[in-house]
Fold:
Amino acid sequence: MKNHVYKTFLLTLLVVVMLIGLFYLPRISVGDTTLRRVNMLSEVQKRDNLGRVVAEVRADSAEGIVEQVLDSAAVKVESAVIVDSLPEGMVGIEDFSLVGREMDKFYSALNSCGSRLVRVAYFGDSFIEGDILTSDLRHLLQSEYGGKGVGWVDIEHIASGFRRTVRTSASGWAAHHSNDSHGKGYRASCAGISGNYFIPAVTGRVKIETQNNVYGKELSEADVATVFYSAGGGLDLTLAINGGEEKVVSGSSAMPSNPAPVYDTMYVPTDSVDEYGDTIMKKVVVKREVQPAVSSAPVDSAILTEKVVGPVRSIELKAHGSSRFYGVAFDGHHGVAVDNFSTRGSDGSFISALPVSTLRQFARVRSYDLIVLHFGLNVASAKVKDYSYYTRRMITAVNHLKQCFPSASILIVGLGDRDQRGADGGFHTMSGVKELVAYQRKMAADTHVAFWNLYEAMGGDGSMAKMKENKQANLDYTHINFAGGKHLAQLLFDVLMNGKSNYDKR
Structure:
């Protein structure tokens, strides 16, 4: 009988050679997922939390391996940081203000919300789309300090179909969004504070209804509804409240071939406020030479408001003629209002292109006590570590807001966790996330505003995967759902209330 043991040896050698060859094949990616490399030594190699092989260190090292760290002078923060005293486990707000404390402006305003409306503007990307996170933050603040209404509602929005806090149905509008800036005729000079504007195509109609299926009475009706728009020639505008009779706000009649001068009545903001803290408008009559082609007359840049005192459960708006509309706000007379300004696919830099004159007008007719900037989802990349190009643009946006809203606290919320499958088969923080958060923190320091590290507050590495296991995040391990928004809103509310408590003690 012949001895065939050598064949077993040859087969084993062939398998080893094949495995070594597979190790050196290029990595294959499917979508955002990179397939694991074939590595027969994977079980004996020392790795970091993303499954990457790390270098050995001296035998006397306590850890035995070297963790990857972000070591760049570009993200070094030298500014003095103020952090309130914190209960165990809480990630606090870092305050980089050079004069006083940045968040104290908001905390001081909360002490006056019994007699006026304290407003919060929350800017973000698809992470907060559909009023996710902000709806629960609004509920918590209104439960603590009072207030009614859902706040700002765009005339049209891509998330209208699944926003649970308000129901919107619109037709007949030419919609212009900041994320359409590379086409569709968008002009930043025409945009409102949300970055969007809406022009009646022929006759624009929108119906907005309050909801009480989630948060109950504070959203079932508002004390006041305010329409924000800029008027042009020939504007016909009617409003109907709670399904009632239409009220003509602005009207035009047929124009003669040689029209005589007419007088426009406008309302211009003053420096005074009423008992609810809203800006008092002054009536101004302006003579205007009317041209025969009224519908093509240019739109005035003045931000006008039309207020309806409630209780308001629904509002129907119909507009025809030359005009730009921005949105409708549902508020209480006092307490807290939280406006959700979500822009899918945005990095937030569109804010710097909004006209200073427009933002200053909004600062008069809808002033804010806290402005939150929560972006980064569309910036983070597994292939990028240097985000200075992005923070340079955002520093311009932050300074833009500081110039136009000097009485508002500005809080930058860092990017939360975003996970991908590592070489070890588990889900870990995507490479690039922690680097971007470090750049966002430095951005807050460079602009002397406040910063909250959401990534750390969530739990750090792999925390999005844990939220997915708890049915608080989506299958992309990137976006949260409403349950996740409730969880994160509670974290933010708790740290805000801790800061408020420290402010009151001081």
Summary: Residues 44-71, 252-267, 287-296 have pLDDT under 50 and may be disordered. The two ends are 95 Å apart (CA to CA). The CA atoms of residues 239 and 317 lie 5 Å apart. Residues 148-333 form one domain.
